[in-house]
Amino acid sequence: MNLPESKELQGVIKQCIKGDKKAQHELFKYCYSFALSISSRYCSDSEEAKEVLSDGLLKVFSHLHRYSPDLSFGGWVRRIMVNTAIDHYRKNKRYHESQLDVSHVKDIAANEETISMLQSEDILKLVQKLPPAYRMVFTLFAVEEYTHKEIAEKLGITEGTSKSNLSKARLKLQKDLNSITDSLDKPYGKHR
Question: 10, 8, 5: which is closest to 68 by C-alpha?
Fold first, then answer.
């Protein structure tokens, strides 16, 4: 999902900077779904995602005067939302230190049929079930396309930890996909 850019949007942004409440409401509605989709990737549930969303949109509006019309507004909002999610993770990191044992998970390719049956909401739910450290690294790497070096710098971890968390996240997702495949192959669960 991307935010469409237009001259009208630039006008709304200028009005927001001047303090126009109607324009601010319009920009809020314009950004809401896009920003929520980003924050949801980094959070375990909708309440946490809305907390990150609120913090992120507050930053968007507080720093709107720093936005340059030469830049993509959607890209600018995305960067703020990702950084807000990272800040939220770091702030709450000490509460999320549980690690998941995935050493027993077989490293096999997920059933392509299972993956094709999943909707994006189903995949998001699987990612949201990951422990916070794994979810953060997985999303930064797989969705935002950060390098392990960039992830390590942003999260204050080593590159090795970033690589390890990504590997464990993939194994956990593989395990969950295998469970879905197994349940589909059982009698009465088969959808063929």
Answer: 10
